[in-house]
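Changelog note: in this version the structure field was regenerated for every chain. One regenerated record is shown below for reference.
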Amino acid sequence: MKKLLGFLCALLLTVGTVGLAGGATPVYLNGVTSGLGGGWADADGTGDALMCWAASAANALYFTGWDGGFTSEDAILNYFKSHWTDGTGNAHTGTRWFFSATLPSDYPMSGSTVNTSAGTAYYNDTLWLANNGSWDANYSNIKTWIDRSYTPADPYYGGSYGIMAYENISLGHYINVWGYDTDGDIYITDNNTAFYGLEKVSLASLSLTTMTRLSENGWDGNYIEPNPSNGNGGNQVLEPATMILLGSGLIGLAFGRRSIRKV
């Protein structure tokens, strides 16, 4: 509740900040907008820095609606943390484990290991295989993926998708990509920072190598079945009148666990 109150309070204070990107035109994944309540997900991985892979997976799972009934990206991350030690891992195989309780073929991974039971199979391996794809994390591919989220006739369309990107730095790092700018920048959430929200960064400043996609529906060339949660389980955009009604008494209340970065 504290996070929700801080979220709505900050939302009122930041109305009108959309468009701070200057002359560049931002393009977001289908279902995502700039600012607070913009559909993106940003799990708080600051307390377990080596589990950025699990936080990135949690963001993708929650946004696409493959949430297993959990009510937030942080709840999904806590589920990972209750089953895995705080160590390095892979967001792609993390989503597979969430779907089917299947341990990756290279288990134990380089750092994180299962520390309790294998986990609950919230879906199944067939659905996971049908909803994934991996490519090089360059601007052209990021742009293509995001543009395709608006093209129903495209064989890779899945309503939208969560993008998990790997940064090749010391110990490795996973983030989520939500949009791009016409000037070559991208919009991300970084689970290991103290900020809660989208950040516009220069792609050249990152060392991204690969990215994986978790589709909202069962499209990856062949349709399997729709996501039973109907996707977009992330922070949904509120109507302006709703924002005013919900936030009218919240100014001055304490913010949530993390400060807000304005895009």
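Spot check on this record: Residues 19-237 form a domain with the Cathepsin B; Chain A fold (CATH 3.90.70). The chain has one domain: 19-237.
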